[in-house]
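Give me C-alpha cells for this 754-residue protein.
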Amino acid sequence: MRLFIISNRLPVKVTRSSDGKFVFSRSEGGLATGLKSLDVDCEKHWIGWPGVCVEQKTEKDDICSQLEKNNYHPVFLSDRQYENYYEGYSNSTLWPLCHYFFAYTLYKKNFWESYREVNAVFCEEISRIVEPNDWVWVQDYQLMLLPGMLREKFPNLHIGYFHHIPFPSHELFRILPERVEILNGLLGADFVAFHIHDYMRHFISATERVLHKNFNLDEVQMNDRVTRVDALPMGINYDLYHNVIADNKVHHAVEKTRVLFGDHKLIISVDRLDYSKGILHRLYGFASFLKNHPEYHGKVTLAMVIVPSRDHVGSYAELKTKIDEEIGSINGTYSTMNWTPVCYFYHGFSFEELVAMYYVADIALVTPLRDGMNLVAKEYVATKQDNPGVLILSEMAGASVELSDALLINPNDTDQIEQAICRALKMPLEEQRERLQRMQAILSVQTVNKWAADFMREWRQTAEKNKRLQKKKISAQDQNEIKTLYDQAKKRLILLDYDGTLTAFKNHPEDAVPTPALRDLLQRFCSDSRNHVTINSGRDHYTLEKWLGDLPLSFAAEHGAFYKEKGAWHKNIGNREWDSELLFILNLFVSKTPYSHLETKEAALAWHYRESDAWLGELRAQQLTKAIMPVCLKKGLQIMQGNKVVEIKSPECTKGSEVARLLLASRYDFILAMGDDTTDEDMFRALPVSAITVKVGIVSEKAKYNLSSQEEVLPFLEKLSGEGVSYGTTSKSIKSQLKATVDFFKGLWTNKKW
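Here you go.
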C-alpha cells in the first residue's frame, strides 16, 4: 500500500541562498509538523509545492533529485500561478470567508482561474506517479477541487480529504460564486473529514442546499458510490511535547527563559500574523486588565510571539501596524525601568525555545476569533507535565471541544479576557494541576497518530463499502445474465415502482406524467403473453388509472390498499374516516413548513416536503413523526418515512403484502422487482431469493442489484425487452407471418388472378 499526502506545501521548504544554491529546511505550520510525525504502516509519499518558483529545467531536476530521496515530489508553479492561487483565491477569497471575515473577502476572476489551474497541475503530477490501488490523501482548502479532478481520471482511486480550517455556515458559504464547483470537487473524495462536528454540519447543510443532495446520516450517494463525512479532531505528537523537558537543549532553554522573565508571572501568546487570531482583541483585554488591576503592575508579563505571515498583503500589513501601535501604547503607558508589560517577538522560535516558554509560562492566552483547531493550546497543555499553568482558550477554536477544562471565553469580549486573566492568576495550584491532568489525559489519547489512524480506518471502511456497492451495480455482464434468464423464462412477474423508478421525482407530484417513451415501453412488456407487469406504487389509484389505466397493466396502489387485475379495481381495506386530531396536526405542519403539502388518499395520508428547505424539512419530518405518534398508536396506524415524505397508513397493506398475494395466485420462473424508496424494501423482503431485485439510488441491503439513478432504469428495461430476442415476441412474429401468408393465398383464390 502506498499513501500519497497532497498539500499546498511540502514539509521541506526550498530557498535560494545568496550564492544561488538551494537550501532545504523544515517547513513551519501545524499541518507539516503534524503529518510529518505520522506513524502509518505503508510506503508514504508527499506531493506539494517546494516553496520556490523556478523555471529552468536543470534547477527543477536538482530540486527533484534532492527531495525524491525522501519520497517528496515537488509541484512546480510559476510566480503568477502561485500568487493568484495562493495569495489570491486561497487566502484572499476562501480564508476570510471560512473564518467569517466576509468584509475581507476579495473576488477576482483571475484568482479563481489560477486556483482551478493549479489544482489541475497538482492532478497532473499525481497522475504521473499514482497507481489505481494507491491511497491519495488531499489536505486543506487550497486543493478543494482536486478530489473531483482525480475522480474523473481515476474512478476507482482511493481519495480522502481533510479540511483543516473552519467550514462556514451555509448562509455564508453560498455567497461564494464558485460554490457548486467546490462542493463537487470535495465530493470526489470517498471520505471527507473536519476537525469538529460544527464544520461537518455546515458542510452537509451546504451540500444539501446548494447541490440538492440528500445525506443519509453521514453519507451521500454519488452515482455508484458514497461519500462519507465525519469529524476527527487533529492531535499532536503528545509524547514529544510531554517528555521534552528531559532534553538537555530544552532544559538549558528553560533556564534561560526563567532568567529572562525573572519572577514575573508569564503569559504566553503564540500566533501567526492573521486577523483571525484575535491578536488585537487580546491586547485590548490585557490593556484593560492592567488598567483595572494596578496591583499586578510589575508582576505580570505578556510574551507575544507573532510569526510573520503575508505582511505584504494590505489587510495583514494594516493589522501589523495596529498591533505595533497597541503594544507601543501599552508599554508606553505602563512600563518601568524594571518591567515591560508586553515582550513582543515578531519572528519564529526554534522548537527548543518555544517549548521552554510553554513550560515556564503560568498562563497561555489562546484567543482566536475563529480557528479550525489551534495546536498551540494542545502543545502548551502537553508540555506542562506536572508544572502548574492555566490555559485561557477561545470557544471559537476547534480545540475548545476537547479542552473543556481550559478557561473558555468569547474572544470578542475583552472584559472576559480581562476576567479570565485575573481568575487564572488567582487559581490555586492544585486546581491548575487537576485541570491540566484532565486535559493531558485527553491529549495523550487523541494524538496525531490516532487522528491519522482514525482517518485511515474510516476511509478504508468507506472504500470497502464502495467496493461492495460496485459489485451490486448492474454491469454489462449482469445485464446479459439477467437478459438470458428473462429470455428463457416461461412466466414472468415484473414489479415496478412508479415515482423515482419509472419517472423522476417532481417538485409537484402531479407533474410526473408518464412520457410517451415510458408508455411505449410498458406496452411492449405487456404485449408479451408471458409477462405479468404490475405497477406497485404508493400513489392513489385514481391517478394511476388516469395515467396508465388504458394499458393492460396490473396495479397495486397506495401500498397495496387497492389493486387492479383484468381491468377491475379491488379494495383491500374498509372505508376509513381520518381522525380530526391527526388532520389538524398534519395541516398545522403544512402551515409551519413553506412549500410542503398534504396529500389525502383513501387509504393513506402523505405529507410531502420535497420543495421545502432541506434542513427545515428534515426537522419538521422528525417533529411531525413525534407529534402524530400517540394518535397513530391509538388508531393502529403505521408511520412511514419515505423520500421527502411522511406517510400514515394502515399496517395491513404494504408493497410486500401485494407481492405475497401475487405469489399465492400464480407461480413464476422469473421475477423482476425495481424500486427506489424505503417502502420498496417490503417488496424486496417478500420475494424469493431467486428474484432479480434492483434498488434505484441508495444501495439496499435487501436488493441484489443497484442502479445509481433513475435515468438508468428505462435503458435497463429497454435492453431487457429488446425486440427479436423474446420468445414471446418471436412466437407472435411467426404467427403473424403465417397468417399474412394464408391471407395472401386466400386473396389469390378469391380473385382468381392466377
